[in-house]
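It would be a great kindness if you could assist me with a short task in structural biology. The matter concerns a single protein, recorded as an amino acid sequence and a row of C-alpha cells. Kindly check, if you would, that the fold set down in the C-alpha cells agrees with what the sequence suggests. Thank you for your consideration; the sequence and its C-alpha cells are set out here:
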Amino acid sequence: MTTVPFSKYARTIAGAWKLISWEMLPTDSTSTTVLHKPHGDNPFGRVVISQTGYVSAILIEPSALAPLEAGTGEWKDATDAEVLRIGRSLTSYGGPLSLSEREDGGLLWKTRVEIAHNPAWIGGDQIRLANHSTEGGQDFLTLQPVNEYTLKDGTKARAVLKWVKVGL
C-alpha cells in the first residue's frame, strides 16, 4: 500500500455523505448473506469530510430519534432511560483522515480519532476499506471496518456501510 496525500482524492471524497445501508455479513469476503442490519432498513447517518480531509461522522438508530418526553424536551432534562435509549444507539467520532492506495484499486481509510462518543476511541484509529463508485450519476462510498464484530449470538461478522454523496 502507498500512502497518498488527501488532496489526490479530495474532489471525490470531500463533501457530505448519507448512510443508505449498514449490513453485517459473514467474515468470508465472498458472501453477501445479510446476517443483521444494526440500524434496520433505513439507517440514519451522516459523514462530512472537509477539503483538507477532516472527518466528522454520526450514526444513530432511527428509533432513538423519538422526541424526548421528559421535562422540556431538552437533552439536559432527559430521563436516564431516554439517555440510555439514545446513547446506546449512537456512534460518533471526528478527526483527520489519511488515505493509502490498496493494490486492488480501493483505499485504506484511517481516521485518527480526536473526539468520539466512546472515550476509548480517542487517540486511536478507525480504519476502513473504502471503495468509491458512480451509479446513475451519483457518487457512492462503501466503507468496511477492518475489525470483525461479534453478533449477539456469537457469530463473527464484518460490517459494510454504504453511503451516497449529498449536496449541501
Q: What stands out?
A: The radius of gyration is 17 Å. Residues 80-87 form the longest helix (8 residues). The chain has one domain: 2-166.
